[in-house]
Structure formats: C-alpha cells, structure tokens
Design a protein that fits this description.
Elements (H helix, E strand, L loop, with lengths): L3 H29 L3 H30 L8 H32 L1
Helix pairs in contact: 1-2, 1-3, 2-3
Organism: Enterococcus diestrammenae
Pfam families: PTS_IIA
InterPro entries: PTS_IIA_lac/cel, PTS_IIA_lac/cel_sf
Length: 106
C-alpha cells in the first residue's frame, strides 16, 4: 500500500510526541517532589522520544524535497501539532525543573 510508509511516520510522530509530553510531565512531578535524579532521567527520556519523532519527520521532509509530495491530511496536521506541542512542553518542563532546583537549594 503506497500510503503505508507515510502512515507509519505520521503515527510515529503522534506516538513519540505523546511519549515525550508524558515523560516531561512526569519529570515536573518528580522535581516537585525533590527527586531531581528522576526528573533528569524523565527529561532524557522525553528528548530521546523527540529525537525518534524527528527521524520520522525527516523521512517525510526528505520525500517531499525529492519531489514525491506528501498528501496533507488531518492526520498529518495532527501529528505535526502533536510534535510541536511536545517540543514546547519539554522545553517548558526544563524551565520548571530549574525553578524547583532553585527553590530546593534555598
């Protein structure tokens, strides 16, 4: 099926983006409890998921750049939205964890 590779990439973006956001939330909760080692591990897990998502996205971008146009569907847009939200959330989680560290050090 011709669309199957794109569907797999799209679902990868959704899955890895969701995993990253979930790990980032768990990192905030760990920092809130003062467990900065767990918070750091969860952020590392989130970043690993984001890297995997970027690999899926890069494949689609490469396909598009080579002239094999990717059909944009609601699912495609949703996957990109999911990824961008996860990136923003992970970045904010890092800032929140830094604030908890600062409070903990006082």
């Amino acid at each position: 099926m011709e669309d199957q590779p794109n569907l797999e990439a799209i679902m990868g973006l959704i899955m890895y983006g969701g995993n990253a956001k979930s790990d980032a939330m768990e990192a905030i909760q760990a920092a809130k409890q003062g467990d900065f080692e767990l918070a750091d591990q969860k952020i590392a897990d989130a970043e690993k998921s984001l890297t995997e998502a970027h690999h899926a996205q890069t494949g689609m971008l490469t396909q598009e750049a080579q002239g094999d146009h990717v059909q944009v569907t609601l699912l495609t847009v949703h996957s990109q939205d999911h990824l961008m939200t996860a990136i923003a959330f992970t970045d904010l989680a890092k800032e929140i964890i830094a604030l908890y560290r600062r409070i903990d050090a006082e």
